[in-house]
Design goal:
The structure is a single chain. The chain has four helices and no strands. It is mostly helical and about 160 residues long. It has one domain.
Length: about 160
């Protein structure tokens, strides 16, 4: 049971850290609409900025959900269901958060280059780089651990 407690604590700590990051990004995103040059952006670019705000809002809500679920549904108890729920919310937030960041990259590159092609390429590059670093490293680590696991079992059986 203590292992589950540590898993839940780590998951909640990661969610809290990501909430802080999302709140900072959300503050910057809201501020963009009040900048003097915002009206000079093309209409489509302003809509991309609005979509970026939406993605960051979704990510923020998803990151707040585990704490509420833990208090309301699980009544503060650490359960395997809560751990799975928290992991699912963090993964969903990590899909949405880079979409918001990619929208910002699109807007910035569009403003400085006036090229929609470079804006799209830059946004997609930042999106796939974020997803690759967040998900790719984790999947590679799990794959490496899975390859090691059978050796540990066979070594344990051999020592018995």
């Amino acid at each position: 049971m203590t292992q589950l407690r540590h898993k839940v604590k780590n998951a909640l700590d990661e969610a809290r850290t990501l909430i802080l990051c999302a709140q900072v990004l959300l503050g910057f995103q809201f501020r963009a609409f009040f900048e003097q040059r915002f009206e000079t952006l093309p209409l489509a670019t302003r809509w991309v900025e609005m979509a970026g705000l939406g993605f960051l809002l979704v990510a923020t809500v998803l990151l707040f959900m585990p704490a509420a679920f833990h208090r309301v549904v699980e009544v503060g108890e650490n359960t395997e269901r809560f751990h799975r729920f928290t992991g699912g919310m963090l993964v969903a937030a990590m899909v949405s958060l880079p979409l918001g960041i990619a929208a910002d990259v699109f807007v910035v590159v569009r403003k400085f280059t006036e090229s929609i092609e470079w804006s799209v390429i830059s946004a997609l590059l930042s999106l796939f780089m974020a997803w690759g670093l967040w998900f790719g490293v984790t999947l590679a680590r799990k794959s490496k651990d899975a390859r090691r696991q059978p050796h540990r079992i066979s070594e344990a059986r051999a020592s018995v």
